[in-house]
Amino acid sequence: MDIVVCVKHVPDTTEAEIAIRDDGRGIKKEGLVFDINEADNYAIEEALLLKEEFDGAITVLTVGPPEADETLRMCLAKGADQAVRLTDERFEGSDGYATARILAEAIKDMDYDLVLTGVQADDDGSAQVGVTLAEVLGIPHAALVVSTETEEDEDRMTVHRELEGGLHEVLEIELPALLTIQTGINEPRYASIFGIRKAMKKQIEVLNLDDLELAEEAVGEAGSRTSLVKLFIPVVTAQATILEGSPEEVSGELVTIFKNEGVI
Amino acid sequence: MGEIFVLAEHRQGELRDVTFEMLGKGQELAVAMDAPLAAVLLGHNVDDFATELARHANQVVVVEDERLEHFNSAVYQQVLAQLITEREPGLVLIGQSAQGMDLAPSLATQLGLPLVTDCVGLEFEDGQLLAVREMYGGKVSARVAFKQANTYLVTARQAAFPFEEGEPLGGEVITVGSPLTEEIAYRRFIEYVEAAVGDVDITQADVVVAVGRGIKEVDNLPLVEKLAKAMGGVLAGSRPVVDAGWLPPDRQVGQSGKTVKPKLYLAVGVSGASQHVVGMKASSTIVAINKDPDAPIFKVAH
Fold this sequence. Notes:
The complex is a heterodimer.
Chain A: E1 3-6, E2 9-11, E3 34-36, H1 38-54, E4 58-63, H2 69-78, E5 82-86, H3 96-107, E6 114-118, H4 129-137, E7 141-149, E8 156-162, E9 167-174, E10 177-181, H5 193-201, E11 204-207, E12 226-232, H6 247-261
Parallel strand pairs in A: 1-4, 1-6, 4-5, 5-11, 6-10, 7-10
Antiparallel strand pairs in A: 2-3, 7-8, 8-9
Helix pairs in contact in A: 2-5, 3-4
Chain B: E1 4-7, E2 10-11, E3 14-15, H1 17-33, E4 37-43, H2 47-54, E5 59-64, H3 73-87, E6 91-96, H4 100-111, E7 115-125, E8 128-135, E9 140-146, E10 152-157, E11 172-176, E12 187-194, E13 207-211, H5 221-230, E14 234-237, H6 239-243, E15 264-268, H7 274-277, E16 285-289
Parallel strand pairs in B: 1-4, 1-6, 4-5, 5-11, 6-10, 7-10, 13-14, 13-15, 15-16
Antiparallel strand pairs in B: 2-3, 7-8, 8-9
Helix pairs in contact in B: 3-4
């Protein structure tokens, strides 16, 4: 089973303080730690598990700057066979649709049975590229996948989609197909030292707009159907009482509040 | 502007809340833009839903087909593409739910329409549609514009738009013919599977102590468990903790897990992603312990 996995190199902002760029259309990246997008990490693991079961090759693909090679190398170290980075200044400003078209151009001539992406990226949180990519490629898709099951040489796959409230939807999908992978589907492995060494020697293929059969008007802002006007830090309308101090002080205050307010 | 479509979302015999939230927002925009509001209902034997929706829309457009009994994005896409092409609505609202996330991007792509997903705000400014959505886990908000088009597609975040029961609109219910001809073989719905039920029902507890990624290590879990026990409560968690296998799925609070409304919700190291917050924001008292003062959890904490 040949699998293409699309990944994204994103900043970890869970505990970081975020500042908005002067042009208001992005955040300042200095000082932020970047890593593979969380859901994509589960997608690459799912690809590795399927490869272990059915053989085949894994191609990992990203749209991003040279720094994104770090994420691609980590995927190679875990067992992906080849890596492609799509990069061009003219890609700047691409929305989910334009990004999907860039990816599709690189994927369309590959041999694949399955395309995997994460459900959504931790940075823009659009959850748009995967399902859009399926439509551009003209293959069926399922989003929010939390389990996959198939047989050797089978041209169909049974997958579970995660719905709300702990419910799953079971469906059957024809291959080749695209699945967007939800976190928790598996236990992502760590790369071995041996794998990391091996990955250092592998070549990452770098393609730009001129290598793709796409016009300049099809990418960047010109090729996008939506555009970021302005980012802002949301006004926290919090009514929260903030208690600060040592654990003893804070817990004492909290207990007093609980008693006075009759919380418990 | 053309009419406003709201895609009614239903599952296992119930209309889902996001439908009414979108109808509320849709009604506000419809009044502002002097456009009619239509609820679009795809299903099989859904007369009761149509009657209920008619209270909140100027028209209910029903597509009746037994192949629409359960949601299947491939089938939905075919029906909606036909309906949107025929009626050219100015705006289509779909929920950012397990259904909408599976449907909206491919529908927009097929029809060549601009789509903004997971919106928490939506308004017309000088006739231009502008959406507000969150990025970076809720730490940043973004205003997003659409490229000029006859029809705009928007998915609305669940629980982002409040719904208030207003004067019934008393819309008419019309049934249009199903455009489905043959079976779609490339994607077939099989069944729904309920998550396994564990020994503890976190929805029944008066005190819920929830842990998040901020507890850093599984070794810190027994300490919080002790706290939960001492307070007479139950231990629950956010998605990352369940994904990591530290807690079973039936302890997960949030959109894809349980919705809880305890007297006290104590969030330990929970950042407060929107998907988590929808599952606990109705708690009577919310206390959050977090070293990051910008953590979105403080938006709902007391």
